[in-house]
Inverse folding.
């Protein structure tokens, strides 16, 4: 007998969905209001905001708002209409692509509407069922989903473990010899949850022994690392070894859109084979002109990145001096590792927001192992030393309550309701 598809959905809401009744609107789908900044409004009160990826503080920069507003007024949000291949192509899209390529020292670039959508579709376009994918187990969901679409063989290596990476390259090489395909290796420039840089230099060195192409998702490295914010490849001095470079506008550029950069023939192939772009409406003009302005500010205003790192260093050194475990972050991403279960984490975050006016993201199972809590802080160029000092005081207070069982008792009461 055929089952009703929705019966399963009603019975099993998923590892996060099962908390929806108690979490929605506060712990998940919260509403931060007011201008994007270091302090915003949550539940009617001002909070220090550490959960916005506006690394360089461009979201509400007057120069950015001026360009965004002028383009919205003159071009509207509809122009250009249609997919790029048919009727949605403009000289501004071409200009943005060339400037992005020049910025990251690649021959050409291809603009895509969204980072997640673009990465899934690019992986699908780059490999056939004869090809083999090798990827880091901690890569972003967009990469995981792109790999899942792959009809061929795939091998996953332990996070940032070069020995494991090489073993899987050996397996991939043997498999490719049988299928007649090639190998695509995928890593991130910066791993967004823990803040570690991908071991790009060591991976690229493996090209001396193995024949593979290297795709790097540098969403968090673009604008924050390397000379002039050019990314993790420049930070590690290996940009030339990255065959396909990817970055998004949604973080340092505080906008919408993303791009791939590579040799011209690779980019042309993506242009004519990435289904998500071939059959999707073109990125609206205010997003394109706005991205051109933001990119220009990255090039000409080094103080933005300097301010970001001034705050980052103050926050991370202050937390470490206070005895907090930040793991092995090498970037602006600041994860604070604590031990506890999901209900305790909910009670702790509520205390942090309501009584200490600090808003940060909470990361729990299934994103990370059970029994572990990450409070993830994203410093920006707009944050101040006052923000840092108040946050460290707040974190010290909640750590004590977590240790003495206060949150566990509160959680038991919440769960009983």
């Amino acid at each position: 007998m055929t089952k009703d598809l929705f019966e399963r959905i009603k019975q099993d809401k998923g590892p996060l969905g099962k908390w929806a009744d108690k979490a929605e609107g506060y712990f998940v789908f919260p509403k931060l209001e007011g201008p994007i900044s270091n302090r915003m409004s949550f539940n009617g009160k001002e909070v220090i905001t550490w959960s916005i990826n506006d690394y360089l503080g461009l979201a509400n920069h007057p120069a950015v708002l001026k360009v965004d507003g002028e383009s919205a007024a003159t071009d509207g949000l509809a122009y250009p209409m249609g997919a790029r291949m048919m009727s949605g192509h403009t000289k501004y899209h071409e200009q943005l692509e060339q400037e992005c390529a020049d910025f990251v020292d690649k021959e050409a670039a291809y603009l895509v509407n969204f980072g997640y959508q673009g990465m899934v579709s690019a992986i699908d376009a780059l490999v056939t069922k004869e090809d083999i994918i090798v990827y880091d187990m901690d890569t972003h969901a967009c990469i995981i989903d792109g790999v899942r679409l792959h009809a061929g063989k795939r091998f996953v290596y332990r996070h940032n473990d070069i020995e494991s990476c090489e073993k899987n390259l050996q397996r991939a090489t043997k498999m490719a010899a049988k299928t007649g395909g090639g190998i695509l290796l995928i890593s991130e420039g910066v791993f967004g949850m823990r803040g570690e840089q991908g071991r790009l230099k060591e991976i690229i060195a493996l090209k001396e022994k193995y024949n593979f192409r290297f795709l790097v998702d540098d969403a968090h490295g673009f604008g924050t690392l390397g000379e002039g914010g050019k990314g993790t490849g420049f930070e590690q001095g290996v940009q030339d070894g990255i065959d396909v470079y990817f970055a998004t506008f949604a973080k340092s550029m505080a906008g919408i859109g993303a791009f791939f950069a590579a040799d011209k023939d690779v980019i042309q192939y993506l242009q004519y084979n990435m289904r998500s772009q071939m059959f999707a409406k073109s990125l609206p003009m205010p997003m394109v002109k706005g991205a051109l302005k933001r990119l220009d500010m990255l090039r000409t205003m080094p103080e933005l990145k300097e301010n970001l790192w001034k705050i980052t260093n103050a926050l991370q050194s202050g937390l470490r001096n206070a005895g907090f475990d930040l793991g092995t972050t090498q970037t602006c991403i600041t994860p604070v590792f604590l031990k506890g279960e999901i209900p305790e984490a909910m009670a702790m975050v509520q205390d942090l927001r309501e009584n200490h006016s600090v808003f940060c993201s909470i990361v729990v199972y299934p994103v990370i192992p059970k029994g572990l809590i990450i409070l993830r802080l994203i410093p920006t160029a707009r944050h101040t030393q006052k923000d840092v000092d108040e946050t460290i005081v707040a974190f010290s207070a909640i750590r004590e309550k977590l240790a003495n069982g206060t949150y566990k008792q509160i959680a038991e009461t919440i769960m009983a309701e």
Notes: The longest helix spans residues 302-321.
